[in-house]
Amino acid sequence: MTAGAGWDVAVIGAGIIGAACAWRLAERGLKVVVLEQGSPAGGSTGKSAAGVRAQFTSETNILLSKHSIEEYAAMPESGYHPGGYLLLVPEAQWPAHQAGVELQHRLGVPTEQLTPEDAQVHAEFLPDGLGGCTFCGTDGHVDAHGLTMAYVNRAREAGARFLLDTPVTGIRRDGEVWQLSTPAGRVEAPLLVNASGAWSGEVGALAGLEIPVQPARRMVFTTGPITLARPLPMIFDLASGVWLRSEGERIILGRADPADVGWREGMEWAWLEPTLEAAMTRFPWLEAASLDRRASWWGYYEVTPDHQAIVGRLPGADGWLNACGFSGHGVMQAAAIARVIAQEALGEAPFIDLSPLRYERFKQVPNGLTDIQV
């Protein structure tokens, strides 16, 4: 089978990024085919904690999240829940964080600055070492699987075709088109969107390209039912890296292990003790909670050297567009990313400045992390 005749764009990956891109490309009149090695949202998307926030410190990330959250709020299928994000900020980081809040306000994000004492209205925690807290009530979480399927359905209605259980096994540029080999035959298109999540580096390697994305395993621990005075918003303690929020009658929580990179599978239960130890230092009431091992899960982040996404055309590779490396921000930015990818594909100026996320930055001296990582 040759599924290539007449395609304008081949999207690799049907997670939330690939599905949203497929819709926005198809609605602009392009003939789109999506190749997915499994099922929609079957990779990182479906294993996400599905948080969405606009509390970033760079304009590009703020706008990508702000516009995405606005789109999710208008989609009944998204399951958007504006429960808020509460950030607990150490003293040393507080001045820079306040500057970030000023930028958020200029861009229309309603973030509040709170003292640690005032922030207790959202959750009980020990304020030791904190310079302040911020809370944004339009942040929250979504149903990542339901949202992805909504994009799949919209893309199909706009004419996109999804080839599921169809891994890409080879990629080469032949004249004006990309040729993608699959077990079902060859697919050809002049434009290719790499939306392969944690597999994006390997997809690039199939074409002889270096895309600096690697998988990083993340654990999500789930408590048993616990009685709280109020549901918890998503809380992120910047000092320890611990995050947690309510999930019905339970709490889900996690903490990134920077050493846990590569294709490692399964729950790493040895990471539970250091996660709980850090969490209970800030939230001592967690000691009364039980753990539900069966309800806990793991998934992959797709991380880059600076923990920022890679978005837009790849220099030196005609027709290759990246939408990958989101480092935990994919669900919260997918809607806006899809719009800018469609604009890039059509040769239009993106409505959000992509320069901080373009591939070319890796040719420059790195500045270190520019935004908090959850």
From TrEMBL:
Gene3D superfamilies: D-Amino Acid Oxidase, subunit A, domain 2, FAD/NAD(P)-binding domain. Keywords: Oxidoreductase. Residues 8-343 form the FAD dependent oxidoreductase domain. SUPFAM superfamilies: FAD/NAD(P)-binding domain (SSF51905). It comes from the Bacteria. The keyword Phosphoprotein does not apply. Pfam families: DAO. This is FAD-dependent oxidoreductase. It comes from Deinococcus malanensis.
